[in-house]
Amino acid sequence: MGKNDTRVLTAGIEIPYVGLGTYLIANDDAAAVVRAALGVGFRHVDTAEFYGNEEGVGAGIRQALEAHGLSRKDVFVTTKLWPGNAAWGQTPKTTETTIASLDESLARLGLEYVDLYLIHAPFDHEQRLAQWRGLVELKRQGKARAIGVSNFDVAHIEELVGAGLPLPDANQIELHPWSQKPALVRYLAEKGITPIAYSSLVPLSTWRIAEGHDSAKTAEMRATGERADSPFKAMAAKYGVSEAQVLLRWAIQMGYPVLPKSTKPERMRQNADLFSFRIDDQDMAAIAKMDRGDGVAWPMGDPTKAA
């Protein structure tokens, strides 16, 4: 991946278009996976307090920096605040505990700062503004170079606007051809907020099968991905790439950084090789008609619909 394979956030820093997603990677496995990903050319790693693997991710980053002669500024690191969800019996974070949470994440990562710190989801209406004030302060302190949100819809961001607070630099949301969120994406563009796509590979029949992870994906959706004549199989054959590469390339052409997860170096290389082909206008237009509405990655429903 080269210098042109980045997007500039409103904070003025570059985010690589291709990042390693680490959700469902165990802490004990994370160091080796992250080290391998950085070894094949990834320069962007995404983790979260909720994933329980920050310690392993940080170890892998430090090992890769030493092994490949990289400096800390060569790797873009994202982690996320788990805001707490009262509906799940958790205590929502305050401004003070938000600040403490990043300090704890940095200790686990073994880093002095992260490049991007996100609120993981808009769970608690009473504490969302308090948590965002915590992120604003962490950015002021230099512990987060950029700050943002995840799974926020227009109304959640408008709360920040109404309170006179700074806008997020990014919003990490489920985005793929079956969940394109056009109204939200238009709003983010108007506000200069970068959409970061997760669960980009939902349309694949094999998505999350290995992990046995629950989701709202239906049997009909899975069958669609298995069809021999599925549109993504046809596009993969047309461009001489994998179906996963087609789905990831679509996101990049839409302007969305992506976070594919893999523990296999060969698959990592494929996931990183997204700049040697381009989806033509006819196929992009066809994909634009495939939107099915809400996301499916969360079994309880699309979290952008939280109150």
State the main characteristics.
alpha/beta, TIM Barrel, 39% helix, 307 residues, globular, 9 strands, single chain
Structural account:
Helix content is about 40%, strand content about 15%. By secondary structure, the protein is α/β, with parallel strands linked by helices. The protein has one domain: NADP-dependent oxidoreductase domain (TIM Barrel, Alpha-Beta Barrel). Strand 5 (about 75-80), helix 3 and strand 6 (about 115-120) form a beta-alpha-beta unit.
Q: What's the overall geometry?
A: globular
Strand order of the largest sheet: 3-4-5-6-7-8-9
Mean of all residue-level pLDDT scores: 92
* Order of helical and strand elements: EEEHEHEHEHEHEHEHHHHH
Largest sheet, if any?
7 strands, parallel
CATH class category label: Alpha Beta
Q: Please tally the helical runs, counting DSSP H or I stretches of 4 or more residues.
A: 11
Q: Count the domains.
A: 1
In helices, the fraction of residues equals: 25-40%
Radius of gyration from the alpha-carbon trace, in angstroms:
18 Å
Distance between the termini: 40 Å
Please give the CATH architecture. Answer: Alpha-Beta Barrel
CATH superfamily: NADP-dependent oxidoreductase domain
Could you tell me the CATH topology label: TIM Barrel
Structural class by SSE content: alpha/beta
Oligomer: single chain
Q: Uncertain regions: pLDDT < 50 for 5+ in a row?
A: none
- Number of separate strands: 9
Beta-strand content estimate: 5-15%
